[in-house]
Amino acid sequence: MAQHQIVPPDNWTKQRRSQRLSLSVPVVIYRVPRAGRHFFEGAHTLAISAHGALIGLGTEVAADQTLILKHAVTGEEQACRVIFVQRKTSGRTEVGIEFRQPAPKFWGIAFPPGDWKHPA
């Protein structure tokens, strides 16, 4: 099995467009047959943002692949692109996905503004 890995630049956290929150949300992620080998997997997010998520997957995916992410509670779907893939020693793969269009309401929560600072 080929291993795909994209290592983000050292300053990738500074380039974020929106706040990232560690939150486990049940999702279903799948690929339609015309976009490659079909798969359908239930998963949970590791972190979310208004522009995408970090998800643990057992299925192998590659950078720049188009996938569909379905919120398991609301049923809402978003087309997304794989932007980060890192295989973990646990056997799972952490996959960063970016929505094709920003969807701040997809997760059903209000994100803090970009300039928000948590008090020390």
Task: Describe what you observe in this structure.
The protein has a 6-stranded antiparallel β-barrel. The model is unreliable at 1-14 (pLDDT under 50). The chain has no helices and 6 strands. 20% of the residues are buried. With 120 residues, it is an all-beta fold. 0% of the residues lie in helices and 39% in strands.
What are the SSEs and their pairings?
Blueprint: E1 26-31, E2 39-49, E3 52-57, E4 66-71, E5 77-87, E6 93-99
Note the beta-strand portion.
Answer: 35-45%
Main sheet record:
6 strands, antiparallel, barrel
Per DSSP E runs of 2 or more residues, the count of β-strands stands at: 6
Task: Give the uncertain stretches in residue-range form.
Answer: 1-14
Give me some keywords for this one.
0% helix, mainly beta, 6-stranded antiparallel β-barrel, 120 residues
